[in-house]
Design goal:
two-stranded antiparallel ribbon; Hypothetical protein af1432; alpha/beta; 18 helices; Rossmann fold; 10 strands
Length: 456
């Protein structure tokens, strides 16, 4: 067992008279050495193990707050180890580190090991440090929440025994209860943000699959979001539908390549049957994940048709979930315009006309009526809400309105990320070897972007 104890200028952010422990598990010594160098100055105690068995021995002796484990290890892989670690210390935050986009292994680790994040090798040093930092910060919030709840329970018993006429003490109690509620809300927001990052991660994995169209799921998600807003659905339901759009192609990762390398109308009968299974695979992958159950059900039924001749359950009309009806229209619109439905590319106007002709047959008529206006809103939103920038003009605090990708199509920075000075410095360093890193799009109504425009 290898142990490092470190200190850092950021120690007050994480610690409050309590030691925080991070365990790294990898069967490759050079990887552990790299992790040791990367985290040597961080304000927590580091443990290192070269196998799942050794890591479990450490956990028998030490309380671990965060685990960062490799997936591919001999004897006991990352999924098996994290599952055992979850039983031993269920409150530990678990992060999976892997160089393989092995769909089944990731799902196994997700379901059995309860991972909160997945990080691809080779990792970005700052990104990995931030992920571990966020996991520790969330763990600290959980600990603080339990402490505050214990204080609340104890003070409640004391107040019960006190004279009800002590009005000032009652007011103080009310104030502390509000603080406790605020802390619980903050903890919930942190957890919810973690799931949003999970959705972005899987959306990026889907996009990098050779059988899927780059950026397709993001376009479907945005159009689904606007259609849901147009139907005046609650904000929480709009968010669920948007996330279903990002993840609706997840099941295609299992399909054979010959089912994905040509338009749907070019598939033979056997290939169409195989293709029809992808909503079931996507649903199976997500249904056991906390927070994603509603998204999983939307994905399962987005290939149902209004007349009941779709799949997998042949649901009819309004028995199909509203999110599935919206997703069906958004997905088919872009399948037509991106050449995924028929052999030739279809214009936006022709795609809208085709969908209108199938209104009441394949699609919910109420959703179809909103399609043309929703497409216009997508275009207007993009034009009004973003500014095109060159690398030299990027400033700290600007927020990306589009992903930043390398010349090889790898997502370097996700949409919605706030640029830091370090991110900009790294992009400038990469520019010498990647000439595609020239144009960037940032959100217009942002303080840093506004300052740039006012000074230009």
């Amino acid at each position: 067992m290898n142990v490092d104890t470190n200190t850092s200028e950021y120690e007050p952010l994480l610690t409050e008279n309590a030691e925080l422990n991070v365990l790294f598990v990898d069967d490759e010594p050079q990887i552990l050495s790299s992790l040791r160098r990367l985290f040597r100055r961080e304000p927590y105690t580091l443990f290192f193990a070269c196998s799942g068995a050794e890591a479990l021995e450490i956990m028998q002796q030490q309380k671990i707050d965060v685990i960062v484990s490799d997936m591919r290890m001999p004897n006991m892989d990352g999924a098996e180890f994290l599952s055992a670690a979850r039983e031993m210390q269920p409150d530990t935050m678990r992060i999976l580190l892997s160089g393989q986009s092995d769909f089944q292994s990731i799902i196994k680790a997700l379901n059995n090991g309860g991972i909160s994040r997945f990080v691809s090798k080779p990792w970005d040093d700052d990104g990995l440090k931030n992920i571990v930092y966020d996991a520790l910060r969330l763990k600290r919030l959980q600990i603080e929440k339990l402490r505050l709840l214990e204080i609340t329970r104890n003070q409640n018993e004391m107040l019960f025994q006190m004279n009800h006429s002590l009005e000032e003490k009652v007011k103080a109690r009310t104030s502390e209860l509000q603080q406790t509620a605020d802390m619980l809300d903050e903890s919930y927001r942190e957890l919810k943000e973690s799931y949003k990052n999970f959705v972005k991660l899987f959306s990026n994995i889907i996009n990098q699959n050779p059988g899927t169209k780059e950026g397709f799921s993001q376009k479907v998600a945005e159009l689904s979001e606007i259609l849901a807003e147009s139907m005046n659905l609650p904000e929480s339901e709009v968010e669920i539908i948007e996330q279903a759009g990002h993840l609706h192609e997840l099941g295609k990762l299992i399909l054979p390549y010959h089912c994905l390398d040509k338009p749907y109308t070019e598939l033979n009968q056997k290939e169409r049957y195989e293709f029809s299974r992808y909503p079931i695979y996507g649903h199976a992958a997500l249904i056991s994940v906390d927070y994603l159950g509603d998204q999983a059900n939307i994905i399962l039924h987005h290939r149902e048709t209004w007349n009941g001749k779709g799949y997998p359950d042949k649901l009819v009309g309004e028995k199909i979930p509203i999110g599935s009806r919206i997703l069906a229209v958004a997905a088919d619109f872009f399948m037509l315009t991106e050449g995924l439905m028929v052999k030739r590319l279809v214009s936006e106007k022709d795609a809208i006309d085709r969908i209108h002709k199938l209104s009441g047959i394949n699609y919910d008529p109420n959703v179809v009526l909103l399609l043309e206006e929703a497409i216009q809103r997508v275009s207007h939103r993009a034009a009004a809400n973003e500014i095109r920038m060159v690398l030299a003009d990027l400033k700290e605090g600007m927020v990306l309105s589009r992903e930043v990708r390398s010349s090889r199509g790898i997502v370097l920075i996700t949409r919605g990320s706030t640029l830091s000075a370090r991110m900009i410095q790294k992009l400038r360093a990469m520019k010498s070897s990647d000439q595609t890193l020239e144009s960037f799009y940032v959100i217009a109504n942002n303080k840093a972007a506004n300052n740039f425009q006012n000074n230009s």
